[in-house]
């Protein structure tokens, strides 16, 4: 529809050609490894008996008992079998080493540092209360404070990848709405609040002392029923469940679905529309298991 079909097709074909080229070299190496692993087992009996025949001709001993022949073949098999397994395991070993290097590169990435400041012990009671009521009784006036902060989705050594620059503001306890045009950085800011980004420079202080319910712009759902995606790890409560269905405007959707609340959403909510996935994920805003909602 946008006239980009040919462009993307060519790009995908180039990537596929590169993939086949790299994969072809790997397959050739694997074939040679299998050949080298199988050759000793196939040629060892022939070579052994041929050498014995030469020795017998030179020494004049032409006797070869059946017990000696089968014993020799058994010993040859015991020696060549480990060699065969080792040669066939070499490609898998190289793949494992490359996987270890990728895992190592991920583990050595610097995690974002959180500066948690709280002047009161953690609250044990997680009963849901109105946001305005929490704002009046909070021990800290601000939940999150940014001071000359530069935000990036990459580690600190990628200064050219900064998406939000020179942030100087505080988010008070209570209800706060972040509005702005498309691409202005709302998603990046929310991700920064929950620690999913990196503070390249400056400082971000967080006074969040409890679990956070986060509804991402692109919702993620488990391959399970709508009911299990809503209740999550909580015990089923019919009163709360009915309240969530009403609050998230899921009643009409459930009536139109053949399985109702037992409808399997599929991989990442594939069987639901984008709006339906968003409404299912919004159940986090009504959960009493979270003190903060984002």
Automatic annotation (TrEMBL):
GO terms for cellular component: membrane. The chain crosses the membrane at residues 31-55. Signal peptide: none annotated. Pfam families: ABC_tran (PF00005). Keywords: ATP-binding, Membrane, Nucleotide-binding, Transmembrane, Transmembrane helix. SUPFAM superfamilies: ABC transporter transmembrane region, P-loop containing nucleoside triphosphate hydrolases. GO terms for molecular function: ATP binding; ATP hydrolysis activity; ATPase-coupled transmembrane transporter activity. The keyword Metal-binding does not apply. It comes from the Eukaryota. Residues 164-281 form the ABC transporter domain. Gene3D superfamilies: ABC transporter type 1, transmembrane domain (1.20.1560.10), P-loop containing nucleotide triphosphate hydrolases (3.40.50.300). This is ABC transporter domain-containing protein. It comes from Trichoderma harzianum.
């Amino acid at each position: 529809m946008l006239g980009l079909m040919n462009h993307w097709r060519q790009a995908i074909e180039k990537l596929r050609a590169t993939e086949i080229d790299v994969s072809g070299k790997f397959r050739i190496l694997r074939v040679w490894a299998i050949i080298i692993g199988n050759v000793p087992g196939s040629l060892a009996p022939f070579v052994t008996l041929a050498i014995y025949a030469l020795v017998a001709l030179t020494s004049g001993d032409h006797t070869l008992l059946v017990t000696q022949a089968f014993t020799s073949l058994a010993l040859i098999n015991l020696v060549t079998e480990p060699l065969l397994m080792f040669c066939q395991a070499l490609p898998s070993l190289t793949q494992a080493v490359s996987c270890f290097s990728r895992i190592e590169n991920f583990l050595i990435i610097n995690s974002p540092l959180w500066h948690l400041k709280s002047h009161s012990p953690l609250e044990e009671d997680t009963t849901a209360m109105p946001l305005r009521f929490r704002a009046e009784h909070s021990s800290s006036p601000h939940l999150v404070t940014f001071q000359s902060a530069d935000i990036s989705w990459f580690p600190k050594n990628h200064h050219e990848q900064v998406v939000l620059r020179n942030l100087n503001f505080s988010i008070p306890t209570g209800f706060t709405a972040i509005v702005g045009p498309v691409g202005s950085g709302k998603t990046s800011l929310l991700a920064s609040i929950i620690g999913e980004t990196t503070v390249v420079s400056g400082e971000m202080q967080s006074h969040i002392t409890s679990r956070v319910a986060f509804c991402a712009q692109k919702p993620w759902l488990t391959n399970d029923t709508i009911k299990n995606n809503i209740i999550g790890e909580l015990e089923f409560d019919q009163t709360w469940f009915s309240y969530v269905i009403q609050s998230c405007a899921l009643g009409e959707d459930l009536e139109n679905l053949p399985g109702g609340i037992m409808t399997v959403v599929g991989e990442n909510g594939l069987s639901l529309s984008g709006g339906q996935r968003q409404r299912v994920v919004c159940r986090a805003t009504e959960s009493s298991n979270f003190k903060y909602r984002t």
